[in-house]
Amino acid sequence: MSNTDTTESQRKGSHGSHGPIGxxxxxxxxLLGHKTRLEILLAIWKAHDLRADDNAVAFSQIRKRVxxxxxxxxxxxxxxxxxxxxxxQADRGGYELRVPAQQLIQTVxxxxxxxxxxxxxxxxxxxxxxxxxQTVMSYREGILFWACxxxxxxxxxxxxxxxxxxxxxxxxxxDPAGLDEWTPDELRAASTVVGRxxxxxxxxxxxxxxxxxxxSWFDWCPDHNSDGCxxxxxxxxxxxxxxxxxxxxxxxxxxxxLALFHPAVVSFYDNxxxxxxxxxxxxxxxxxxxxxxxSHQVTVxxxxxxxxTVTASQDDEMIRLTFDETVRVVDVCR
Length: 334
Known about the structure:
The protein is built from 10 helices and 14 strands. The protein is an alpha+beta fold. It folds into 3 domains: 1-11 and 206-334, no CATH class; 32-110, Arc Repressor Mutant, subunit A (Orthogonal Bundle); 115-181, no CATH class. The strands form 4 sheets. Strands 1-8-9-10 form a 4-stranded antiparallel β-sheet. The protein has a 4-stranded antiparallel β-sheet with strand order 4-5-6-7, with helices on one face. Strands 11-12-13-14 form a 4-stranded antiparallel β-sheet, with helices on one face. Helix 3 (35-47) crosses helix 4 (59-66). This is Zf-TFIIB domain-containing protein. InterPro entries: DUF7347, DUF7351. Residues 27-108 form the DUF7347 domain. Pfam families: DUF7347, DUF7351.
């Protein structure tokens, strides 16, 4: 397996794994390490309107919702939150949430880290693109899986029993709150939307988790066998990788998929009456776009430094993108 991975020091960035960002995180957890302070944040969240010009919540309302017996002690906890999570609006006679607190509460509401949701493997109306078998959706530990239990999915050259679920086709982080809102077929389309959004952010150089810079590179398998490669174990021999320098978030994708983000490819398909947009409420179109992505041809045209082309064709016309070693498009040929 050849690769153009960045060094560990570059990947970690200037902060390192225990630098200023780590200290800031510890300080933030320390501020929230008291039940009353979390109750205060929730009390302000429930009482204010984010869309209103004046959404400050009075101390008396906070005290009523928190049901704290000691007003002096309650003010102390508010003072500890003031500045990082809460902003006191003296002219409005109350307190309002700062953006970090809003994001924290939205995460809690979404169910991340709170609900241990689980979805048993459930059949959906989509055949495996590689073996034609029935595919399933399942969910555990915050990840929504689309899989084929009859073949290796995206990992035909690896031990089938080593994956849970076996035969993974896609795996995307998915907040548990969304499980109750979609049918299994709709979950397939919804997970595509979520996965594309996160991948697009990484492809554009911004971590979808923490907004830090992302390093990107290609791995490729020179003697690849797509039916079950002993060298890389993967369905596709060329993989683009994206890794955050700060939080270490990592994502990988076939360049077949990345081509769908480029405006020239979007325009190319639009000229042929095909929209590359995917909506969670249009399962059939999500399925067509996935098939369209699989039809793209990937070629490693140079290996030092690596250059990768992706070619899309429709009605005897074609468009070709060339990616450099940093997974940036450096040429478009149509």
